[in-house]
Amino acid sequence: MSGLISINPSLPTAERYLLLEEQVKALVYGEEDLIANLSNIMSALKYGMNYFWVGVYKVAGDQLILGPFQGPVACTRILKGRGVCGNCWERNQAIIVGDVDKFPGHIACSSDTKSEIVLPVRNKEGEVAFVLDIDSNSLNDFNTEDQKGLEKIVTIIESIL
Length: 161
Ligand code: SME
Prior knowledge:
By secondary structure, the chain is α+β, with helices and mostly antiparallel strands. The chain contains four helices and six strands; from the N terminus they run ααβββαβββα. The site of methionine sulfoxide (SME) has 14 residues, from helix 3 and strand 6.
């Protein structure tokens, strides 16, 4: 399996996520290594959906540590409860931020980031093991339809942890 994933941007959002889900399932099929799988999933998300930045942070002690990602270089460590990612971890729930400047304590890894969606990735015990962070350079770029589509991707990630 190699090459660039591309999904027609003019398709309805729900359909794009459905195609993405199929491609992500195919990408991880037959491979057990988590880092390899997460790396390819981040590439599929970036090139399939044309996000500005997409990556995972791994829970490690009282911090999140940067994992496989696609996009500009990012902050490597985030404390629990800090920024959107740290809040997602603490609350164990997805967060959509339409304007990062209005989110108290937002961590600006890139000044180009304007909106974001962050979802918890849970282990078998239901604890947050990773957070999936997706950033846009446009305001209000994510809605509940994105959340629904991305929850399907998160389910795939949870199945390969
Ligand atoms: N914006 C995030 C930090 C991670 S970077 O954007 C990649 C936050 O506030 O949690």
